[in-house]
Write a structure and sequence with these properties.
four-stranded antiparallel β-sheet; five-stranded antiparallel β-sheet; about 110 residues; mainly beta
Length: about 110
């Protein structure tokens, strides 16, 4: 089974990238986006940029991820949820992922 990715994920089989507005301009107010990585193994992560707070639901619970807390692996499947308020904007995030394997270098 090859993991499937939803929405704005660039998927290359068992690995890919999730990007939301990273260097593509600031994200809008009141935005909400979700991305799902259907991998039932350990998902390895490399957060290249994170100028937001996102919530990651995974096989063992939920993590709140920001610039000070960037997990490098979580049990899949994963759902990454981004929601902005009506006041603060930023540059978004970029995370590379791999299902059950090491994350490629950027």
């Amino acid at each position: 089974d090859v993991p499937r990715a939803s929405d704005d994920i660039t998927s290359m089989g068992e690995r890919g990238t999730v990007v939301y507005r990273a260097h593509g301009g600031q994200y809008p107010n009141n935005a909400r986006k979700e991305w799902t990585i259907d991998c039932f193994e350990l998902v390895n992560l490399a957060w290249d940029l994170i100028d937001v707070t996102v919530t990651v639901h995974h096989g063992y619970g939920t993590n709140v991820v920001d610039a000070q807390s960037t997990p490098t692996s979580l049990q899949g499947p994963l759902t990454i949820v981004f929601a902005s308020d009506r006041f603060v904007t930023g540059n978004g995030f970029r995370v590379r992922w791999a299902c059950g394997a090491a994350v490629d270098e950027a």
